[in-house]
Write a structure and sequence with these properties.
Blueprint lengths: L7 H4 L10 E3 L7 E7 L4 H19 L1 H17 L2 H15 L5 H6 L5 E5 L5 E6 L5 H13 L11 E7 L1 E4 L2 H16 L9 E9 L6 H13 L7 E2 L6 E8 L2 E8 L1 H4 L6 H23 L1
Length: about 290
């Protein structure tokens, strides 16, 4: 028999890109994460390219948290006696040989980024866990992609990103509780006297449980605490935008700043690229005209 052909990537000294698994299923209540729209029939390719971008930004943004976790693990090991360390290693080996055991499942480290197959055309979802804060995470990614200093196109299939702080079951009672939780840090407490301008954007996919206007009206009531606060609805020049994503049995919510519309084109990655490249082309044309 012929010899096994060596891996071309390994022989060239290149490291292979991390592959991201896609798990199937509905979105559970209490889920945080990021919706992304993408090209038709390119959902898996979109998840792969977005996974690479997310992983890179995760390592960059949460480096301190990751370092603290590593240091904590090392300190715990150092505090153990030689005998206890041996016992711990034997215990870990024993659990590895019992992949179906409950203790193994409970001890298994949960990934901070996990793609979920929604079985929905042109839409993918990445579930996030601590320390990731979806709004901050997506805002930083969009800011970097929109920077005129960064002219490299990082994605081919991704269109729009939408962060979800938290989610609930698709009932009006749960929606009210979700709204109270998500809106308070942005509109209540120290922000109660600010008189912010806001809007509500609702997206529904495979969802008909609650009418769209009922969702909007309920969110407005929660923002203004039924008219007690000075916040006003402004659909064009808002300070804050409440994003509500409804999918099947799940309702997700987050709050973004006015830059979402005015500067970052509703977090549409393709439109951000197009605008940036057009601006760069116009600038070059202007410079060439000046030099003539």
């Amino acid at each position: 028999m012929g010899e096994k052909r060596p891996n071309s990537n390994a022989s060239n000294g290149r490291t292979q890109k991390k592959k991201f698994k896609i798990n199937s299923g509905f979105l559970d209540p209490g889920t945080s994460g990021i919706y992304a729209t993408c090209s038709r029939r390119k959902e898996r390719l979109a998840a792969q390219e977005l996974g690479q971008l997310f992983e890179e930004k995760f390592q960059e943004m949460y480096k301190e948290e990751l370092t603290k976790d590593d240091d904590s693990d090392e300190e715990n090991i150092d505090e153990l006696s030689i005998e206890d360390q041996i016992k711990q290693e034997l215990s870990e080996l024993h659990e590895k040989n019992k992949p179906t055991s409950k203790s193994h499942d409970n001890n298994k480290k949960k990934e901070p980024l996990q793609f979920i197959d929604l079985d929905c055309e042109c839409v993918i979802f990445c579930k996030t866990r601590s320390p990731i804060v979806p709004e901050e995470f997506v805002a930083k990614i969009i800011e970097d992609l929109a920077s005129p200093d960064n002219m490299e196109k990082r994605t081919r299939y991704i269109a729009k990103l939408t962060p979800i702080t938290y989610s609930c079951n698709a009932t009006m009672e749960q929606l009210i509780l979700l709204a109270q939780r998500i809106l308070a840090p942005h509109f209540h407490g120290e922000h109660s006297e600010d008189g912010l301008k806001f809007a509500v954007e609702v997206t529904r996919r495979n969802f008909n449980t609650i009418p769209k206007m009922d969702i909007i009206n309920q969110v407005v009531k929660e923002v203004t605490e039924k008219g007690k606060l000075n916040h006003k609805v402004d659909l064009k020049n808002y300070d804050k935008l409440v994003l509500v994503e409804c999918f099947k049995n799940n309702i997700g919510m987050s709050v973004v700043s006015g830059d979402y519309l005015t500067k970052y084109r509703k977090y549409n990655v393709q439109q951000i690229y197009e605008a940036k490249f057009n601006d760069n082309s116009e600038e070059k044309d202007a410079q060439n005209a000046t030099n003539k």
